[in-house]
Amino acid sequence: MWYPPNGIRYKLTETHWPTVEEVSKSLLFQPIKIGNVTLSSRTWVPAMVPWRATEDGFVTEDNLDWYGRFAVGRPGAIVVEATGIRDIPSGPLLRIGHDRFIPGLKKMVEHVKEESHGETRFFIQIIDFLSVKRRPEPDKYFSKFLTITQDHRKKLAEILNSENWLTVDEINVRLFLQNASESLQDQIMNEREIESLRQGYRERVTDEHLPHIKNLPEVLPGIFAAAAIRAREAGFDGVELHYAHAYTMASFLSARNNRTDGYGGSKENRVKLPLEVYKAVRKSVGNDYVVGLRFLGDEVIEAGNRIDDAIYFGEEFARIGFDFLSISKGGKFEDAKQPKIGAAVYPYTGPSGYECMPTMNSDEIGPFGRNINLATKIKQAVNQAGFFPPIITAGGISTFELAEKTLQENKADIIASARQSLADPDWFLKIKLGRGQEIRRCNYTNYCEALDQLHKEVTCKLWDQKKEPGVKLTSDGRRRMIPPDWEK
Ligand SMILES: Cc1cc2nc3c(=O)[nH]c(=O)nc-3n(C[C@H](O)[C@H](O)[C@H](O)COP(=O)(O)O)c2cc1C
Ligand code: SF4
């Protein structure tokens, strides 16, 4: 995990929890409309991958327990984890790329309605992602994966000052590179080859030489639209198109996208496919269904999008008809930490990952509400342009005081809390009942995120302070699968 250098170690401070009367006067607990749907309050549990689906992407009892448990706290809305829209294996992550996934998803919808007594609106985040391979054993990389080219031979001849390298056998080039120092490898291999060796091979939307990447603009609108129809059939109140973090659609939006086919380069070109995907989704689900999105207020990486790009995109998204705009920050592969051999690069380990899920080791701004300013700037521009889709902000919001102040000052329309809701899914209910002092407060040390990185069942460290007999444990037998019940 990356921390700001020479950072400050923050602690949780006392906060004022409201009385029932204060709650009744608050904005946080006022309803809000999103498209044709009304949320009972402006509280939101954003998407969080819990690693609980079957290996082939079906809903399990553990998924039901997970979402059902969040629903008990009755937030205004819950967004289901990033759910894959293709019919391809992706490990224990939920999928919606075929009709066979609908019955399980339907069960989940029914369970959430039941557990929240019909109060919580239930959306699903739908995602496309490209291939990311694990960091290889160097021996294997040089003997199997690296394609030896004439370019390598030319560079070897040049650097070693011997024309013999121009005709040397492939096997000898491989052996030389394998035993070369890192700096020599850097001189001979190209940037992508070095990345494949030291981080693991990763596809990009700019790999236009690969037919399946080249044709993304033809393929994606259709598969997003088909996934949205399935979401509607399963009974979800709406879909959230995942245009944020390290994944395909965010990469189209990125300032680093220099595709040459009209879908890269200028902002207008980069937003083209995201808008085409929206149109296809809207056409398939109709005007009365909620279609929102999540995108980045700032990519954080070098040469990536800044707030000005995000403002432009926000206006375009609002103009075309998205029902809500959920703003996140960072979470990119480009600045991620080098993974261990055999592990895959994880987009929340570098500076952009830190900005996405800020921790208590922070800088002078601190982890609390750190990203609200991005949502505010986008909201102001979108509203000034005459559009009013609710703008959702996330990032270190775990007190009523901060949530309410953000709404009162018109900085955002809905407050999303991921880790605080994980630490205590009853926290909304506790506030509403004037019992905020009983909230188990997230300490933002990112134990949960570390589990996500290891592809282990996500749990919260604080849950394990209470272990009663018979409670379901994770597959390593060490942790509770769901939080303790609130003993009212
Ligand atoms: C374990 C875990 C899994 C996450 N999975 C997703 C995801 O599937 N999609 C997404 O957009 N964000 C995901 N996030 C990011 C959160 O939705 C949220 O934006 C981030 O944690 C910052 O909010 P917070 O400070 O309230 O936790 C995940 C966060 C955590 C901790
Ligand atoms: S594990 Fe830590 S960071 Fe994650 S929700 Fe629990 S207290 Fe918060």
Describe, in plain words, how this protein is organized in 3D.
The chain folds into 2 domains: 8-132 and 221-465, Alpha-Beta Barrel (TIM Barrel); 138-198, no CATH class. The strands form 3 sheets. An 8-stranded parallel beta barrel has the order 4-5-6-7-8-9-11-12, surrounded by 7 helices. It has a two-stranded antiparallel ribbon with strand order 1-10. The protein is globular. Helix 3 (102-115) crosses helix 10 and helix 10 runs parallel beside helix 13 (272-285). The two termini are 37 Å apart. It has 20 helices and 12 strands. 37% of the residues lie in helices and 11% in strands. The longest helix is centred in the middle third of the chain and has 19 residues, at 216-234. Strand 8, helix 14 (307-320) and strand 9 (325-328) form a beta-alpha-beta unit. The chain is an alpha/beta fold and 488 residues long. Bound molecules: flavin mononucleotide (FMN) and iron/sulfur cluster (SF4). Iron/sulfur cluster (SF4) binds next to helix 18 and helix 20.
Class of the largest domain in CATH?
Answer: Alpha Beta
- What is the CATH architecture term of the largest domain? Alpha-Beta Barrel
Q: CATH fold name of the largest domain, please?
A: TIM Barrel
Strand content: 5-15%
Classify the helix fraction into a percent range. Answer: 25-40%
Largest sheet: 8 strands, parallel, barrel
Strands of the widest sheet, in order across it, are 4-5-6-7-8-9-11-12
**Backbone structural class:** alpha/beta
The N- to C-terminal Cα distance equals 37 Å
Query: What ions, cofactors and ligands are bound?
Result: flavin mononucleotide, iron/sulfur cluster
Number of domains: 2
Low-confidence region ranges:
none
Q: In one word, what is the shape?
A: globular
Record field, number of beta strands: 12
Quaternary structure type: single chain
Helix run count = 20
What is the C-alpha radius of gyration, as a whole number of Å? Answer: 24 Å
Average the pLDDT over all residues and give the rounded result: 96
Query: What is the CATH homology-level superfamily of the largest domain?
Result: Aldolase class I
